[in-house]
Amino acid sequence: MKIGIDKIGFYAPHLYVDMNKLAVQRNVEPEKFTIGIGQEKMSLAPITQDPVTLAANAALEILDEEDREAIDFVIFGTESGIDSSKSAGVYVHDLLGLNPYARAIEVKQACYGATAGIQMAKGHIALNPQSKVLVLGSDIARYGLNTPGEATQGAGAVAMVISADPNILVLEDQSVYFTTDIMDFWRPIYSDKAFVDGKLSNEQYISFFSKVWEQYKSKTGLGLNDFEAICYHLPYTKMGLKALRTVLDEGTEEVRERLTNNYTISTSYNRNVGNIYTASLYLSLLSLLEQKDDLATGSRIGLFSYGSGAVGEFFTGILQPNYKDHLHVDNHSSLFSLRREVTVSEYEEIFEETLPTDGSTFKLDVDNDPASICLAGMADDKRLYINKLK
Fold first, then answer.
1. Per mean pLDDT, which range of 166-180, 186-200, 233-247 is the poorest?
2. Which of 80, 121, 368, 372 is at 20 to 30 A from 315, Cα to Cα?
3. Per the structure, how many domains does the chain have?
């Protein structure tokens, strides 16, 4: 049975910060941000957006009534969840009006969560071929103002429908995964900002890729020449390039050029959104599919997922006939063009806005947020969501 990505959607908030201007305000050479880490813009979530609303908005554009009835499993990958007990998947299930006879859970392992969700979804579809699974990756990356990680913040979500006989990408069965306990990145439950050992994290990212890549070649007999492109988890776009460069010598000159060019295309969206943790790999995949005009049916695409702490996986997919017909290129082009730039001082003010923690009633103005699904406030320690289309 062929199982894979049948639909894929994306959402980012309507606000962003220009990285050149942030660099100037931080007394940093702009090239350190735009070239050194490879980021142009950073998506900024207003207080009316959180991981739940970002995910719901990403899914809203791709689901039809048939999907709403067939989806019987919602898997929400995130590392910036809003509740230590109730899964974000339950909120999204309700906001989207999905079939009530369904499972809804939240999966956590740093930036690996959505990949774990996809692998779980494959097993569910294998047992229930008529079912569909909604896999969500949604995060708001926060390191704090004037911190070393500030330039690698971001906000956004990717939603994917996993099904049998998918229209976009069939996921191949053989993959390689690796786990070891390291402290390269973490966020204690008492903190709304992450902690990171940047040097160690970069080293482990490369090390994990090397381990799973070598094991994958040994396991499958495939090599670099068998790939049209390799997409990476992108905490910042230069990170994946560092990993790709470690294996380019294994290919012919033609292959090296192809993989490098396709890598650049696959980072287009990420450069203008920033780090969105669990969704970053899949935003890169989406960028490749929507921005590359001549990817051929049957092309094999490699996918490297890395979640600090740490878990890594290398797996692959095969492009399906007419996959372009099932993308939402115009929607995403419009999303980017309609975003509004904020000044650095505005960004700092928005970044510091927080919800009450004392259970008090708190109403938010959703009229200034163009998203269909928003956080409307809080009451009795409960978040109150609104779907403007209902």
1. 186-200
2. 80
3. 2
